[in-house]
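re: that chain from earlier
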Amino acid sequence: MPNKKNNEKDKQESTSSLGELDQLRKIVFGDAQQQLIAKLTKLRSDTEQAQDTQDKKFSLCIDKMQRDFIYKLEELDKRINAVDKMHDDNEADIQKNHENLTCEHEMFAAATREDFKNIDQSLHNESDTLSKTFNDQLEQLKKHLEDVSKDLRFSKTDRKTLAQLLATMAINLEDDQR
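^ sequence. v structure.
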């Protein structure tokens, strides 16, 4: 127990030493300490106010940036939609033009085939007509030649006249063929 008493005594001495030390500090540094504490308190208050002001300014800046960002995104979205619509319209026009051209091409191809068929038929008919006419004229010339030959045999015309007649007929045949 004597230790306990010593400890308590030491504590009391220590507390009284601290109390004396605090009193001495107050005497020596009293006004300066009070001023320093007041300045620290003011500095802390000013710092908190500045931080609050900066927080408000920062929040306002962030809000403004967010509004600007959203506005720019909306504007960009509008432009993209306009370009998309323009592209869709152009694509629809191209598709429509393609369909029209395909239809016109098919009609032109059908008309061309029909024209070729008609021309072929016309040429065939004309060829048949010319061939028939040529054959008829050839037959007439043969008949005429036979008649003339018979006449020449019967009339006993000289061969010079016959040669001239045949030459004339040959020339007539060439002219008819042209």
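Residues 2-177 form one domain.
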